[in-house]
Design goal:
eight-stranded antiparallel beta barrel
Amino acid sequence: MESENTLKSVLNACKYISINIHPHILMKHFIFTLTLLFLIVIHADGQTDSKHFSYTTYIGTGLSMGQPSQTPFNWQIIAHYHIGQRLTIGAGSGLSIYEKALIPLYANAQFFMTRPKKLTPYLECNIGGSLAAAKETNGGFYLSPSVGAQVKLTQKLKMNIALGYEIQQLERLKQRTDEYFHTEFKEELSHHSITLKVGLTY
C-alpha cells in the first residue's frame, strides 16, 4: 500500500512538472540534482548492501507521431535504488538521436505490478531534460512513461521489454540565405514517439 501511494505521488509530480515548468528551467535543475543523485547512488552502492541497488541498460527505437518525422534511436543506462520489492527510484542518462545527438539526464521511477516472479509486469517513468552535443542545438524537456515486462534469466540477471511514449523537446539554429539577406533563427521542435526498448537488469 505504501509503495502504491508513493507511485501515485511520483506520477502526479510528473504531470505537474510537464504542464507547469518551462523546459529550460527544468533541464538546469535536473542537471544539478541528478548529477548529485548519481554520485550519491554510486557512493551508497559501495557502502551498503548491494541488494538494494540494480542497474539497467536499454536500447530502443520508436515510431514518430509528429512533424518533422524522425525515427529515434535510444541507449539508456539507469541506476535503481529499491524501496521494498515493488518500487525503485533512481537516475539515468544515455544517448538519444533525432536530428541531432542528445544526452538525456533524468529521474526514474519503476513500479512492479506484482511481487517478483519469473515474469513480472511493471510501469516506468523517466522525466528530466537533455543536453545537446552540437553547438547549434539546445536540448530541452524529456518525458518517457512506459509499461513493460521483466523476465528473470538468472538469480542476478533479468531481461526487460517495454512499450512507451516519449516526448523530447529541443531547439536548433537554422539559417536562410539568398541574394538579398542572411538570417539566423531558432526553431523549437517537440518530438512525440511511440517507443519500443529492450534491456538487461543486473
